[in-house]
């Protein structure tokens, strides 16, 4: 079911910068006026995952967002030293405490965003901080990592 929410051009443009240029560590998107997915904020390359989580927490308990994060982690291939890998994750952040209408809008519009941003490594759904915790994300990434 299409929600009719459009993805703003800026979203796709800036996505190229995080994917190729490594301009940002993360970009947070929101749905503006129930019509368009727009950029809400972004974090520089030196931002860490905690900065991203702090931003989500600062929005309050009833705000939903999408977060694109360039997640770096150590990955050991068999018989090789640990190598730093990075994977782009796209998170839908819908706290349990958010209004049902808002959660439905974000859920139904997630596909539009997924289709606009090609080459995402992992999709994550989080309803609270424990689901968004770095070790939880890492586990999800590694469960599908190709060695």
Mean pLDDT: 91
Number of DSSP helical runs: 5
Going by CATH, the homologous superfamily would be Severin
| Overall geometry | globular
Any idea of the CATH class? Answer: Alpha Beta
Helix fraction, binned, reads 25-40%
Give the ordered list of helices and strands. EHEEHEEHEHH
Strand order of the largest sheet: 1-3-2-4-5-6
Low-confidence stretches: none
Protein name: Cofilin/actin-depolymerizing factor homolog
Keywords: Actin-binding
GO molecular function, one term: actin binding
Family: Belongs to the actin-binding proteins ADF family.
Please give the structural blueprint.
Elements lengths: L5 E2 L1 H13 L2 E9 L3 E9 L4 H10 L6 E12 L5 E12 L6 H17 L5 E5 L2 H4 L1 H9 L5
Parallel strand pairs: 1-3, 5-6
Antiparallel strand pairs: 2-3, 2-4, 4-5
Give a short overview.
The chain is of the alpha/beta class.
Which structural traits does this protein have?
147 residues; alpha/beta; Severin; globular; actin binding
Explain what you see.
The structure is a single chain. α3 (100-116) links the parallel β5 and β6 (122-126). The termini are far apart. The protein has five helices and six strands. By secondary structure, it is of the alpha/beta class. The protein is globular and about 50 Å long. The model has no long low-confidence stretch (mean pLDDT 91). It has a six-stranded mixed beta sheet with strand order 1-3-2-4-5-6, sandwiched between helices. The chain has one domain: Severin, CATH 3.40.20.10. This is Cofilin/actin-depolymerizing factor homolog. One of its GO terms (molecular function) is actin binding.
């Amino acid at each position: 079911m299409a929600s009719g929410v459009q993805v703003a051009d800026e979203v796709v443009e800036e996505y190229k910068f995080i994917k190729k240029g490594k301009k940002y560590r993360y970009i947070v998107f929101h749905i503006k006026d129930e019509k368009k997915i727009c950029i809400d904020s972004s974090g520089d390359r030196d931002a860490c995952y905690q900065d991203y989580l702090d931003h989500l927490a600062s929005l309050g308990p009833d705000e939903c967002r999408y977060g694109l994060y360039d997640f770096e982690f150590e990955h050991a291939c068999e018989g090789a030293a640990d190598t730093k890998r990075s994977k782009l994750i796209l998170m839908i952040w819908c706290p349990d405490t958010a209004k049902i209408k808002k959660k439905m809008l974000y859920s139904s519009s997630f596909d539009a965003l997924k289709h606009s941003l090609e080459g995402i490594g992992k999709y994550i759904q989080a309803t609270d901080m424990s689901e968004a915790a770095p070790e939880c994300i890492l586990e999800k990434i590694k469960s599908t990592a190709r060695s």
